[in-house]
Q: What sequence folds into this?
């Protein structure tokens, strides 16, 4: 399912640091979840096999049906977790994305006032991705809290160390690809489908059209991912060219 890191010094350092982060939330997530997540980290580090039978631990997953959240879903289910994909229903989503989410058993949740807030950002010429992310995560967090689910996973590639898994109020946030030091190339390989290296959000395109200066925020994000080795130079180049072409 996932490859071992081999002699990659940076990924090994991150994974060992992530073990420390996992220890900090041990009491909040319980021994079953702790032991399985630790075994998953050790598998990534050393290839040591582990029991992947179901352990009856629910994890809510912020599921966009994109590559990062799809890979996270596959890994968590493979590792024996009872994963509840939670998809925020956004106006820019096409039916193909919604159908993919439903095929994976996703629960669809509404994001209150989403379009009003994002439209206001676009009209101001302000970046929208951060605002969108925070609103989506709030809706998914509310769903998890209402159902007593203790762990909320995301497909975040960047968070490392103590913020790869951490407590936030009554939830433990697990940024799974970052927790496992996965990069974009590994994720594309894992999901096993053709992947277009492009930004697919029509609202983002509209923001670029109205205020081209907003593109710099997208470019900064790509370069941050490149510095963190979450994407390769080739992937970064493709994404940058896509942004500049909009």
A:
């Amino acid at each position: 399912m996932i490859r071992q890191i081999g002699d990659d010094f940076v990924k090994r350092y991150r994974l060992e640091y992530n073990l420390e982060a996992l220890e900090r939330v041990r009491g909040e997530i319980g021994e079953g979840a702790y032991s399985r997540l630790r075994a998953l980290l050790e598998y990534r580090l050393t290839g040591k096999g582990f029991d992947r039978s179901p352990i009856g631990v629910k994890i809510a997953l912020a599921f966009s049906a994109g590559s990062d959240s799809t890979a996270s879903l596959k890994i968590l289910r493979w590792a024996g977790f009872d994963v509840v994909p939670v998809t925020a229903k956004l106006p820019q989503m096409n039916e193909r994305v919604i159908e993919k989410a439903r095929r994976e058993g996703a629960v669809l949740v509404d994001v209150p006032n989403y379009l009003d807030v994002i439209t206001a950002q676009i009209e101001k010429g302000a970046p929208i991705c951060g605002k969108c992310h925070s609103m989506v995560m709030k809706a998914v967090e509310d769903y998890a809290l209402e159902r007593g689910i203790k762990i909320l996973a995301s497909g975040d590639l960047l968070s490392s160390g103590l913020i790869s898994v951490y407590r936030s109020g009554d939830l433990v946030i697990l940024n799974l690809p970052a927790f496992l030091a996965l990069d974009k190339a590994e994720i594309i390989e894992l999901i096993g489908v053709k992947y277009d290296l492009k930004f697919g959000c029509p609202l983002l395109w509209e923001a670029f059209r109205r205020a081209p200066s907003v593109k710099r925020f997208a470019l900064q994000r790509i370069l941050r991912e490149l510095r963190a080795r979450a994407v390769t130079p080739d992937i970064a180049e493709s994404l940058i060219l896509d942004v500049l072409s909009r």
Q: What stands out?
A: The chain has eleven helices and six strands. The mean pLDDT is 94. Residues 26-46 form the longest helix (21 residues).
